[in-house]
Design brief:
By secondary structure, this protein is mostly helical. It has one domain (about 5-240). It is about 75% helix and about 0% strand. It has a two-stranded antiparallel ribbon. Strand 1 (about 40-45) and strand 2 form a beta hairpin. Helix 5 packs antiparallel against helix 8, helix 5 packs across helix 9 and helix 6 (about 140-170) packs across helix 7.
Length: about 240
């Protein structure tokens, strides 16, 4: 057995049980259904988010959901004696390591922008209900949005590129299948947004999965993910 096999073999073990994985899929389906219901719910003939009064509770509910998913994953991996760090991987030993990963995250963010631009040209705008009403407007909404984005950067990378990608790798023994599989599940959880955003989210999820494989850590993806959400929901609009 060579050094390469020694490094990769542990990654091919299930990090949580089959039962845990099936329950996870059920949670993803429930989130998609709940999101669809919330997106299409009406009150007195008007969309609930149309008044913009529900944005902060929406941000907080999304944050809570993300951390509940992290908790669920943690419970599953703990039963197999696997620490959180085993999924995150990588350590910053000095300032040089931090700057290197920040630079890679910035370059990757540029790739995300190009991919999003290309998909928008190719697919065109979706016909789903616009989500622009959920974007922050006031100072307090911006603060909560930034915190929500930072939280999503950690939680979603940990859950999908950490836990789920490792599970698919263990089941398939194929890195491409693992990256593609987690990207599809990640997209389906956002199915309530419409088919165009689902494709966009799926492509983004696959890119993040490939980044995690390449860098052998979730840290770069977490930084890029948080920044992308902050940019898309706030900075992009004020810089236009």
């Amino acid at each position: 057995m060579n050094e390469k096999d020694t490094i990769k073999e542990p990654d091919r073990d299930l990090v949580a049980s089959y039962r845990h994985l099936f329950i996870f899929f059920g949670i993803v389906a429930a989130v998609a259904v709940a999101g669809y219901s919330a997106q299409h719910r009406t009150s007195s003939g008007a969309d609930l988010v149309g008044t913009h009064a529900y944005v902060i509770p929406t941000y907080l509910s999304v944050t809570l959901m993300n951390w509940l998913l992290v908790f669920f994953v943690w419970r599953g991996i703990r039963r197999r004696g696997i620490p959180i760090q085993s999924l995150v991987q990588g350590r910053w030993a000095n300032a040089r390591d931090i700057l290197r990963d920040l630079g890679i995250a910035a370059l990757f963010w540029g790739i995300l922008l190009l991919a999003g631009w290309g998909l928008e040209i190719f697919l065109g705008p979706g016909h789903e209900k616009s989500l622009r009403m959920l974007l922050p407007r006031t100072g307090i909404e911006v603060v909560v949005w930034v915190l929500t984005s930072a939280s999503a950067g950690f939680c979603e990378e940990f859950v999908f590129r950490g836990y789920l990608q490792r599970q698919f790798l263990a089941l398939s023994s194929s890195i491409p299948i693992a990256v593609l599989g987690q990207g599809i599940v990640f997209a389906l959880m956002h199915a309530y947004q419409g088919w165009v955003p689902v494709i966009q989210v799926g492509v983004i999820g696959i890119l993040f999965g490939a980044l995690a494989v390449w860098r052998k850590t979730l840290r770069v993806g977490m930084v890029a993910h948080a920044w992308q959400d902050i940019w898309a929901g706030w900075l992009c609009s004020i810089l236009k």
